[in-house]
Amino acid sequence: MPRALNTLVGRLALLQLLIYAVLLPVLFYGLDSVARTNAYDTFTRHARAYTSSLARELELADVLESPSRTIVFLDGAVEGGGSAYAAIDFNGRLFGSSATELPAWVQHRGDDLEFEKSPDSIYAVAMPVRRTGAAGTLYLGFDERPTLDQLRAAQNQIIEALAAYGIASVFVAVLLARLVSRPLTQLQAASRRVAGADASAHLGTDSKMVEIVDLSRDLEIMRSKLVGAAEQLRAEMRQRQVEQAERTTLERQLRHEQRLATIGTFAGGLAHEFNNILVPMILYTEESLDEIGAEHPARPNLDRALKAATRASNVVSKLLAFSRPMAERPPEAVDLAVVTREALDLFQALIPPNVELKWDIGRGGECVLGDATLLNQVVLNLCSNAVQAMRESGGSLTVVVLARDRFIAETSPGTVSRMLELRVKDTGHGMNPQTQERVFEPFFTTREVGEGSGLGLSIVHGIVASMGGTISVTSVLGAGTEFVVELPAVMGSAQSQ
Amino acid sequence: MPSVLVIDDEPDVRDSIRQVLTRAGFDVMTADNGVTGVQGFFDHPADVVIVDVVMPRSNGIEVIRKIRAGFAGARIIAITGGGHFGPFGYKPGTITTDAYLASASQSGADAVMTKPFHRKELIALVRSLVKN
User: Fold this and answer.
1) Of B88, B100, B120, which to mutate for an interface test with A (greatest number of A Cβ within 10 Å)?
2) Are A276 and B115 a contacting pair at CB < 8 A?
3) Higher pLDDT, A280 or A226
4) Regarding predicted confidence, which is higher, B78 or B83?
5) Are A440 and A457 in contact (CB under 8 A)?
6) What average pLDDT does the structure give for chain A?
């Protein structure tokens, strides 16, 4: 079924058409039958009454005494009575009107002809005429055609009236349907907008129909509830995404710290073992050196062995620097800017010509709690790594020291921590994410064997952590690396104004 | 001849210290754990005790306390290979080289030394304690 017929308007129009398809023939034939019966009755009654009155007149008057008067009478009957012809059969003589020949078939009939059955559409009536001593029959013929024309005209009027009524009622049905369907269409358009992007589209119509008004009000209530629920869902999803991101970050930090912790413990155990092994190596070597003479050929080799053992001892103590807290000396207030400037003064001499050193370390005046020597080591280590990354390509090394307030909203609102930052940035080859992840692990190095111990950044990490600070790295492969050391300022946290 | 008792679970450490100190003129006895070390000391008290702080199955700190309790005049040197054996994270309570040595001093050690040390340092330290 086409879509147009499935609409309310289509259905109502179709229904109306179906009703009239059944009703119209019934109405038409009913009305036609009534009109026909009435017209027939009137016509035949008139014909019989007229013929009967002429027959009475003939019985009473002397018309039949003379044939010429009979003819005049019959002519008068045709002209004055609206009949088509008139004839009389009296005492075996037939007199016809001058207007019409009497049809042959009338002569053989003594009775009325049926209406509408004669071939020339003539309705014939025969009436007996009795006079003293004689009898006869009066024949009058009436033309049916004007009556039949009137009937046909009436029939046409009925058809026209019914057709007009049918068209009007279909039109009314369509109008009614549209009256109902228009607000529904408005609701539909609004609900489509709601289903699309525009959830704020109002679900209403300008209809005054109670049912439609109720429906649109209920739909509007449903929409506002749905919108509220959707809004809440979206907010919850956003919240969850934020929480998930925070959790992921925390988990990554925790994993990182745990791995460093595991490695730290391992490094500590390793250092302990090595120190125990180094004791006999050093003592036996020194013993041997003490025993042999100054010119003994084994002396140079023993000297070398002792030197190597001493170097091993230094490596182990570096490993321990990562492994243990830096609580060897009581911490003191150290001006980060001053320490950094001193370290850079030293370092400047070591910078290759293809690397440009830039710094912005301020005037200083703000301190962190720690060890100046260790901080110096941090600066030198980060700078030498940066230069290492730019050794071939060249570039610029930027060192920045700055202070800023960190707001601690989550634990104690309104509290700020004063933090000092040391930023060391290079434009070198950068690191991939895997390298960034492992960069603080001891013995992790990307350099060629013999170029570095792989302990530098793990020591830096240990020093920074021992001062209650953090170190983070951001790097873009091919673009450069930045290390950010964050240390709590000595004044600690202060209430914000 | 001044006597020295060396208590260390590492045979190479024990033997090398013994050789150095014997050649330096000390009478050296050794023990490979805390229990036999304390027992040996009470059987033949030595002038100087060199004890490793970290040993399996026996605690060097306990050894120091027991000897100090039995012989107030004993001379004790605590040695350790260092390292870090507690949970990582720079938390208070983490056991470190410094913490071990500090604990040894508090328990009554007269001197502390971190491994590895040089022959001359060892001899000088033992001699200084014997003199006192």
Assistant:
1) B88
2) yes
3) A280
4) B78
5) yes
6) 81
Both tokens of A46, joined, read 């008139």
- pLDDT for A420 beyond 70: yes
> Pick from A171, A323, A477: which is nearest to B82 by CA?
A323
Question: Which whole number is the average pLDDT over A140-164?
Answer: 85
Of B19, B97, B98, the CB nearest to A287: B19
* Cβ-based contacts of A281 with chain B (< 8 Å): 116
Task: Dig out the tokens for B10 from the structure.
Answer: 């590492």
Q: Quick check: A68 and A113 in contact, CB under 8 A?
A: no
pLDDT, greater one: B104 or A233: A233
Nearest to A286 among B13, B15, B118 (CB): B118
More confident residue, A164 or A117: A164
ipTM: 0.87
Q: Please give, rounded to a whole number of angstroms, the shortest distance from the CA of A320 to a CA of chain B.
A: 6
Q: Measured between alpha carbons, how far is A413 from A408 in angstroms, rounded to an integer?
A: 6
B39 touches chain A (CB under 8 A): no
* Region for B128 from its dihedrals, namely left if φ exceeds 0, alpha if ψ lies in -120 to 50, beta otherwise: alpha
Mean pLDDT of B108-127: 92
In chain A, the N- to C-terminal Cα span, in Å, equals 77
pLDDT of residue A108 exceeding 60: no
| Contact criterion met (CB < 8 Å) for A276 and B89 | no
SS3 of A135-152: the string is EEEEEEEEECHHHHHHHH
Test A280 with B12 for CB contact under 8 angstroms.
yes
User: How far is the alpha carbon of A256 from chain B, nearest alpha carbon, in Å?
Assistant: 12
Residue pair A8/A181 in contact (Cβ under 8 Å)? The answer is yes
Peptide bond into A331 cis (omega under 30): no
Amino acid in position A317: S
A1 confidence band (pLDDT: 50, 70, 90):
low
